[in-house]
Amino acid sequence: MRRSIAIMRLKIAGIIVTLTLGILVVMSFAADAQRSGKVYRLGFISSSVTSESHPFLEGLRQGLSELGYKAGKNIKIEYRFGKKQELPRLAEDLVKLQVDLIVAGGSQGIKAAKKATQTTPIVMTNSGNAQRSGFVASLARPGGNITGMTQISPELAAKRLQLLQETVPGLSKVAVLWYPLHPNTPNTFKETQEASQKLGLQLISLEVKAPTDFDAAFSTALKQRAEGLVVLRDPFMVRHRTLIVKFAMEHQLP
After folding, report:
1. Gene3D superfamilies of this UniProt entry (predicted)?
2. How far, in Å, CA of 231 to CA of 215, rounded?
3. Which class is 154-250 in CATH?
4. What are 140-154's pLDDT values in tens digits?
């Protein structure tokens, strides 16, 4: 059940990406495509999404279809999946293909796309703090050739904790599971710390650097009587989501 919900959320995320202002503005040539018969090329680059059948990409294609873009008819998607160190080369490959737009997944994908081109429009998805990372000047006025969505900001950190407070009346102790080796996660953790102080919550830091650290982290959460769990999302945590969900369910930790 939880797996199906997670898949649905990923698919919805893909749809949302195509409905953001960035897509609507930089790809407002649907009518032109239909009139001219031109097939536009969209590039997708990511290290965390690794196959065309990924739910996020299913949602992306569905969203494009709803905007009038039909694969093989007036749009072609060039997929580039690879490890972190391969992304710069893959981004350059998309630029050489002269794609009309690049959808970049994850901070590393966005960074690679930004370095590869200052002219091709880039829509970021699943980014860290886009402003702090230097991808955009601000969320309201991004500037340059990048727009899209960010999943990290001080407001979002506070909102996650507020939602947990609403779920658990009288909440006072929150465990935060985080991976310090991801470039964006330390900033996210700092923002979560600041938000917890403003909300009067005691934060329990569960730092995990390797899969073997999970047992110790879970033990700390139980010993310190955590009443809720916040997981700072990144590819590492996504890979180990089953283990995390199992722990939370076994100990009834929201």
Report:
1. 3.40.50.2300
2. 15
3. alpha beta
4. 677 888 887 776 666
